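Revision sheet: structure tokens.
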Amino acid sequence: MIVRKREQDEAEISMSPMIDMVFLLLVFFLVASKPIKEEADLGMTLPGTVEQSESLEIPDEQKIEIRADGQIVLNEMEMDTPTSQDLPNLVHTLTRFKESADANKSEAMVTLAPDDTTNHQRIADVMNACSQARITGVTFAGGEEEEEF
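Predicted:
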């Protein structure tokens, strides 16, 4: 007796229905999901220093007078006490001036006009205050200035 082996067909899995199901699931999840709503951008600026695109006309030089008694006068306004060495009011005012000049894209200039009998330590104190305010443009007034009437 001759036994013949039957040729068996190999089982094949059809990929077409599987790919169709994956695409259907993908479309379902895309449609069913909620899109994230982006926050609206509000065009506002917070208070503070804003750089100017063009240079504005502001006083570009501050004049500091140092009187013989040690009193410091910034643009005709007395600052601190004649005995104060750290000069907090002057440092604060000069720092604000420096910030304003930087925002205006100009150089902060300070002219020192000490009295002839002023103590040299007082001049050094004022120069230290300028340094704390990060002002590098410090000059000295030359000679007696004529007053206009």
